[in-house]
TrEMBL record:
Gene name of this polypeptide: aroK
Assigned protein family: Belongs to the shikimate kinase family.
Annotated residues for binding of ATP: 10-15, 118
Organism: Lutibacter aestuarii
Binding site for substrate: 32, 56, 79, 140
Molecular functions per Gene Ontology: kinase activity
Official protein name in the record: Shikimate kinase
Amino acid sequence: MNIVLMGYMASGKSAIGKVLAKKLNLQFIDLDVFIEENEGVTISELFQTKGEIYFRIKEGEYLKEILKKNTNTVISCGGGTPCYGNNLEIIKKYSISFYLKASINTIFERLKNETSERPLVATIGVENLKEYIAKHLFERNEFYEKSNYTISVDHKTIETIEEEVVALL
Ligand code: S3P
């Protein structure tokens, strides 16, 4: 069975996915990295040159390719992955999914210093960032909440979160 980690930007999907895969002796795929490797450019460059819609189409295609081809793989999604097309349906069909739930404050504190690598928030000033996160998270929560399990990640170490995931399997 595959394990999919979803959640907002900076919720720890990649870091936890890596540790989790190692612990369970499973393959690890970070969807953003997979897209970058297959497209030969960074996510930021992809947004700049081809636009978000092209990115969303590719994101859905690669997600399906990974989930249909692999078993016993931990997949860390991008923040928007479950919110577009039929991605959530595919995730539900081919994996056990976890929502790594971070609060607006946690996300803000983590994102405020590293917006430049993230195209969706790169142009949003720090003074508007919290409001942006709050609205965006409100829109996306209904998708995230459809995962099999929700784990709150605020004030927890990667190891604690990883142990909570393992205990739920
Ligand atoms: C996005 C999140 C990013 C990346 C892209 C779009 C989003 O991934 O897929 O910039 O829509 O939230 P991370 O959640 O790993 O930052």
